[in-house]
Design brief:
Strand content: 15-25%
Radius of gyration: 31 Å
Strand order of the largest sheet: 3-10-9-6-5-11-4
Helix content: 25-40%
Protein name: Bacteriophage T5 Orf172 DNA-binding domain-containing protein
Number of domains: 3
Largest sheet: 7 strands, antiparallel
InterPro entries: Phage_T5_Orf172_DNA-bd
Domain Bacteriophage T5 Orf172 DNA-binding: 279-373
Pfam families: MUG113 (PF13455)
Structural class: alpha+beta
Distance between the termini: 91 Å
Shape: elongated
């Protein structure tokens, strides 16, 4: 139990044989003081607003900072131990989602939120460029002419073609782990290619980093750090990662470790008695992609114009892993575009409808196309109806 006695009182009690517990003076490190001060800011916000800080994109920037900081504190054992005695309101005991980059400090968090700040000695935020952003600006300024750009120019041209035909797509940049050798990004309106990546190192703060050689599509390059590219992508509202092309084991009997099923490509034959279908039943196939079970997709086929208002037979299916179903379906339809079935049928109300997913293609050619999708060579082929085979597109 702590005491409120003066030094004279302590001396008197000592003479009476009573031991007095001295109040311990706790010496904290600067880091611990910062953690406590940051937590007290959150407590003050909760006291003034009667609720936890939120991540609302149109909310106050400080509230968003407090929300991210609280999530980090909940996941940091050191902070949980340090703040237990301060957490009378139980702020640290609530469940919260993990932040996507738990290595960001407050400057980087604010920079990611679009605010240029520098922390002053008395914890005031001033609207000036932070050291983080100055470093990012220096990285951009240090770009130089890429002497061997002729070697990389065809890669950028190929990536653009694959973006145009749907083999690749762009996605918002999210995690530093996405930065790897051989990957493409869009930053500040330019395509960036990570041509080289040095060995991983640890910063003074214990964070991973690596030196990169980054080639840009304007013929320049930069010898920048991985965290610098990460900051540039986070700061850029239009910063994107360009996905890999549709190559590799896209279709298999079982997914590889880490894969997730996203759909099924199916091949159907129609039981329609339409003269064109009846005469070519073994060649007329519908090729589609579904995220539902195939049986659910074809339920009630006789009532749907897309199924030729008739029952259908499933003749082949292939599981789809980690692929944009719609874009892959469009790619397949372009490959077989020359053999698209030109047929018009009336719907339930007698209105003429022209289905677009039926093709005059042998099943073995569809199997061959799937194999070429698997090995990534499909973009070099198109279907030739005259020879009923896949041929190099230059020969068509």
């Amino acid at each position: 139990m702590a005491n409120n006695f003066t030094d004279d009182d302590d001396a008197l009690l000592a003479e009476l044989g009573i031991e007095v517990e001295k109040k311990k003076q706790v010496k904290r490190t600067p880091r611990e003081e910062r953690i406590i001060a940051g937590f007290e800011d959150i407590q003050k916000f909760v006291s003034e607003n009667g609720r936890l800080p939120r991540h609302s994109e149109d909310g106050d920037i400080f509230e968003r900072l407090y929300a991210v900081r609280l999530e980090r504190l909940r996941e940091l054992p050191e902070a949980m131990d340090l703040l237990t005695d301060f957490d009378g309101g139980g702020l640290l005991s609530g469940a919260a989602p993990l932040v996507e980059d738990e290595e960001l400090d407050d400057d980087e968090l604010l920079a990611a939120l679009g605010v240029e700040v520098e922390t002053s000695p008395i914890m005031e935020l001033k609207h000036v460029r932070s050291a983080v952003e100055r470093k990012a600006a220096e990285d951009a300024a240090n770009r130089q002419r890429c002497e061997d750009f002729d070697k990389f120019k065809p890669l950028f041209e190929k990536v653009q073609r694959e973006l145009d035909n749907g083999e690749r797509e762009t996605r918002p940049f999210e995690l530093k782990a996405e930065i790897q050798k051989g990957r493409f990004f869009i930053v500040e309106g330019q395509k960036a290619y990570v041509a080289e990546m040095g060995e991983s190192t640890l910063t003074d703060q214990g964070r991973t980093d690596a030196r990169l050689r980054v080639i840009f599509d304007n013929g320049t390059e930069s010898n920048m750090l991985m965290r610098s590219l990460q900051r540039a992508l986070n700061k850029d509202d239009a910063g994107r990662r360009i996905t890999e092309s549709v190559a590799g084991p896209l279709f298999s009997d079982a997914p590889e470790e880490g894969d997730s099923t996203t759909g099924t490509i199916y091949v159907l034959r129609s039981k329609s008695e339409h003269p064109m279908v009846a005469e070519n039943r073994d060649l007329v196939h519908k090729i589609g992609v579904t995220t539902l079970g195939v049986e659910k997709r074809i339920a009630g086929a006789q009532l749907q114009p897309t199924f030729l208002m008739a029952q259908v037979e499933v003749v082949a299916t292939y599981e789809l892993y980690n692929i944009n179903q719609t874009k892959l379906e469009n790619l397949i339809h372009r490959i077989f575009g020359a053999a698209q079935l030109d047929i018009q049928i009336p719907d339930r109300f007698g209105r003429p409808v022209t289905p677009r997913e039926w093709f005059l293609v042998p099943l073995f050619v569809i199997d061959e196309a799937v194999e070429k999708i698997r090995d990534g060579s499909i973009t070099n082929f198109r279907y030739n109806p005259d020879s009923a085979s896949l041929v190099p597109r230059e020969s068509i």
